[in-house]
Design goal:
The complex is a heterodimer of chains A (170) and B (421). Helices cover 36% and strands 18% of the residues of chain A. With 170 residues, chain A is α/β, with parallel strands linked by helices. Chain A has a seven-stranded mixed β-sheet. Chain B has helices at 5-12, 38-47, 72-88, 101-107, 139-148, 173-184, 206-214, 230-239, 297-300, 303-313, 331-339, 342-349, 399-408, 415-420, and strands at 23-27, 30-34, 59-62, 91-92, 116-119, 133-136, 150-154, 158-164, 193-197, 223-226, 257-262, 269-271, 279-281, 292-295, 323-326, 352-353, 374-377, 393-397. In chain B, helix 7 (206-214) links the parallel strand 9 and strand 10 (223-226). In chain B, helix 2 (38-47) packs across helix 5 (139-148) and helix 10 (303-313) runs parallel beside helix 13. Classes of the chains: A alpha/beta (170), B alpha/beta (421). Bound molecules: iron/sulfur cluster.
């Protein structure tokens, strides 16, 4: 998760729900690429055709509210979105994104000020977001230590794998 | 400092101290997925190198979303879950014996007072009615629970919701939770727990309480908890699949906020498109003509909901313009509704009665909306495109409002029906 991120911003409002991130009619697969094709199409038809690999989603409050479908952050990854910046995240989306390795950043100032099309870069290790177009820099709210450790281990899957292997040796 | 119910349950399941904001490793009593969320969970489970679920009697898969299989892709997906459940000898119920997970699991006594329950479905919070810390997670989180029997939880602050006054006859649990949503909004309780109190709960049937806990997630909450009372304990004791220990909040528990709702002055409500918090009196929309009514889902597909619908539809006809789908949320509800003659009432009224499934609630099958169509639904979400075309509209309501609207063909306050008589 510590790779540098750079891309164009696509901005959305408050309460972006998982039904618009990936509508239920596509939940007959969990294939990343397949889900990626339909990402955000109910709120912005043709979205995935407009974006470039590495682009950044910027949302308002309560991003990812609604269903627990892990398919939502998976769809962003499949569409080539490099990260989501928002004022706040709904809790299940927050957990899911961390678990599947979609970088997310909580930063109300950045979420408020970034305008569609701005070029954004993020340094995850420093926790800084730079709006290159407007020459502004923001710091993201750091995650609690346990989550930082989880991310550093490579996400929940890797974390549990280590735990299971460790147990085997006891 | 006293503990809220959420804190007390988390602390009873953890070696960590359940101070607000702490991340606690907790033991999980029950963990389940459905036909949509099981396949990614199975994939993560394998990636974790896990071989056996932690306890086959405490792990379950329930086919309820796209089942009976709506197409080939969903059939494949359902098969994946079924095969895994067999391999792991975990709990699984087939179409014909199952129900919508959040209606079915409490009925079968798998969610019990004092439990921590995790389900790969956001409406797992429904279990809060029984005084369980029951919360939705994604598939990978669920896989971790299946693999280890544990998970992490950040201890949430709690909002105490007090429902005051005596509940009028036409006010249901659904109206009460819509009133709460109208008041605090879709993120009013984000990362928090709700704890429900107040004298209006005293004579509130359990099925109505399930509707309230069910929509806790619509306020952003992790859990929506009722404190076990005699009604809850009797229900749980009668059905329990294993022993359980009810847990209670301390008298001097610290609540982050108190929200008070006067139930006595309430009128039947609807949540208009496209947010569950867009709440108004049903009356205000009496000019809105509708195309479909859906009575069912994990919010309002229980026996009392079906009974309320029957009380309105008895001797009446569904409006000629309207398609009315009635879907009991479980087989127990279905059989009981049959025994009591409700299904007969529905058939005579001209409603379509379907087998228990989530069906149209998530725009899955059995009632997808076309562009421009309007639907009154007893479910819990009216997001853009939730039940079909992005230009369709969903109004959320109680079964009373839904059934009355099915008869008149427009959004209707059920008290109008009484006046007609
Ligand atoms: S009935 Fe609707 S809300 Fe409930 S579990 Fe099924 S899809 Fe989800």
């Amino acid at each position: 998760m510590n790779r540098m991120i750079r891309g164009k911003a696509w901005t959305f409002g408050n309460d972006i729900d998982t039904d618009v991130i990936i509508p239920a009619r596509y939940l007959v697969t969990n294939d990343e690429k397949e889900l990626g094709k339909h990402c955000m199409e109910d709120i912005d038809p043709g979205f995935t055709k407009k974006i470039d690999n590495g682009d950044v989603i910027v949302g308002g409050e309560n991003f990812g509210c609604g269903s627990s479908r892990e398919h939502a952050p998976i769809a962003f990854k499949g569409a080539g979105i490099s990260c989501v910046i928002a004022s706040s995240f709904a809790r299940i989306f927050f957990r899911n994104a961390i678990n599947i390795g979609l970088p997310i950043f909580v930063c109300p100032e950045a979420a408020r000020e970034i305008i569609q099309g701005d070029i954004i870069s993020v340094d995850p290790s420093k926790g800084t977001i730079t709006n290159e177009t407007r020459d502004r820099e923001y710091s993201t709210s750091p995650f609690p230590p346990f989550l930082q450790q989880l991310i550093a281990t490579g996400g929940l899957t890797a974390y549990v794998r280590e735990k299971i292997q460790h147990k085997g040796k006891d | 400092m006293g503990k809220t119910l959420a804190q007390a349950i988390i602390e009873a399941h953890s070696d960590d101290k359940a101070d607000i904001g702490n991340i606690c490793q907790v033991k999980v009593d029950f963990a389940f997925a459905n036909d949509i969320t099981a396949p990614p969970a199975i994939r993560s489970f394998r990636d974790m190198g896990a071989e056996k679920v932690f306890d086959s009697e405490r792990c379950a898969i329930l086919p309820d979303h796209f089942t009976p299989n709506k197409d080939i892709a969903s059939a494949q997906q359902a098969m994946e879950g079924r095969k895994f459940a067999r391999e792991q000898q975990m709990l699984y119920w087939e179409v014909g014996r199952v129900g919508v997970e959040h209606a079915f699991l409490p009925e079968k006594g798998y969610i019990l007072p004092g439990d921590i329950v995790m389900g790969a479905d956001s409406h797992t919070c429904t279990g809060g009615t029984l005084g369980a810390f029951s919360t939705g997670v994604g598939s990978t989180d669920l896989a971790a629970v299946w693999a280890t029997g544990e998970s992490w939880l950040m201890v949430p602050p709690t909002i105490k919701v007090i429902f005051h006054g005596e509940r009028p006859e036409w006010i249901t649990g659904k109206d009460m939770v819509l009133a709460l949503l109208g008041k605090i909004g879709v993120q009013g309780a984000r990362y928090k727990a709700l704890e429900f109190h107040g004298e209006a709960l005293g004579n509130l049937p359990l099925d109505d309480r399930f509707s309230i806990s069910n929509m806790a997630v619509e306020t952003g909450a992790k859990a929506g908890l009722f404190v076990p009372d005699a009604k809850i304990l009797t229900y749980a004791e009668k059905r329990a699949s294993r022993s359980f220990n009810p847990i209670y909040p301390d008298q001097d528990a610290q609540y982050e906020q108190i929200v008070e709702i006067d139930v006595e002055s309430m009128e039947p409500l609807v949540a208009a498109p496209h947010l569950p918090s867009n709440v108004h009196r049903a009356k205000e929309f009496s000019q809105v003509e509708i195309d479909q009514v859906f009575i069912g889902s994990c919010t309002n597909g229980r026996l009392r909901d079906i009974e309320m619908a029957a009380s309105i539809l008895k001797g009446r006809k569904i409006h000629e313009r309207v398609r009315c789908m009635i879907i009991p949320a479980s087989y127990e509800v279905y059989s009981e509704a049959m025994k009591r003659g409700y299904l007969e009432i529905f058939a005579s009224a001209g409603a379509a009665i379907c087998t228990p499934t989530c069906g149209p609630c998530l725009g899955g099958h059995m009632g997808i909306l076309a562009a421009g169509e309007k639907c009154v639904s007893t479910s819990n979400r009216n997001f853009i495109g939730r039940m079909g075309h992005t230009e369709s509209e969903v109004y959320l309501s109680s079964p009373l409002v839904a059934a009355a609207s099915a008869v008149t063909g427009r959004i209707t306050d059920p008290r109008e029906m009484e006046e007609q008589e």
